[in-house]
Amino acid sequence: MAERIELKWVPGHMDARGNEAADEAAKEAAMGDSSEKKKLPKQLRASDGIPVSVSAMRQKLTKDTSKAWTDSWTESPRYPKFCKFEKKGRGTNFEKLAGKLRRNQMSILTQLRTNHVPLNFYLHRIKRAENADCPHCPGIAEDVDHVLLNCSNYIQPRQTLQTRAGRKAASKRHLLSDKKGVKHLLEFLHGTRRFEKVFGTLWSEKDAKEREEESGEEDEEWRGEEEEAEEEE
């Protein structure tokens, strides 16, 4: 007796219980998790089972690798320090920034977040500096807070930073995680020249131009929203 298969079209993403179950079963089968042979139609009872989807296996490998990395990273002792600057606490802002900054920019941003940066406070701790003092402010430790917010040797770059960021210039979270804040920070660090030997050029004319273009695009979006609001009124 011939087997009869009936197909019915249903709209996708409509929470149809049968459709959702079929979709889940199809995903499992694509990953190689098939039903017992005796429960399958004869046409699908090949000795090697249902062919595995290469695309599905790649997706699974990517997903498993990402999960393994995430699990390893979240168990790291540096994770809490790194993510305390994130609103969601999981490094989501940093991930978005990663594709928009150069390697040396990402490197110093990571080191500033974890306080493992080549300043005397950290260098003294790992026995790479005679003391932890700031070379410009005797008796005061040269750590991230001091360089960003207080060191008297960087008054001019800090004034530029305050002009760019306003009151947020005193917010480490803004400077170390916000898209605009990070760019203002990089300009400030470049102006101090404190990290030039280790990280090279942290801010260039190209960076400044890109920031202006992004700012212009945001202004256009804001004006567009304002015009739409006026039309609705």
From TrEMBL:
Acidic residues bias: where?
213-233
Ranges of Basic and acidic residues compositional bias?
Answer: 14-27
Q: Where is this region: Disordered?
A: 11-49, 206-233
Q: What InterPro entries does the annotation carry?
A: RNaseH-like_sf (IPR012337), RNaseH_domain (IPR002156), RNaseH_sf (IPR036397)
Q: Which GO molecular function annotations are given, in alphabetical order?
A: nucleic acid binding; RNA-DNA hybrid ribonuclease activity
Q: Where is the RNase H type-1 domain?
A: 1-31
What is the name of the protein in this document?
RNase H type-1 domain-containing protein
* Species per Swiss-Prot/TrEMBL record: Serendipita vermifera MAFF 305830
Higher taxonomy: Eukaryota, Fungi, Dikarya, Basidiomycota, Agaricomycotina
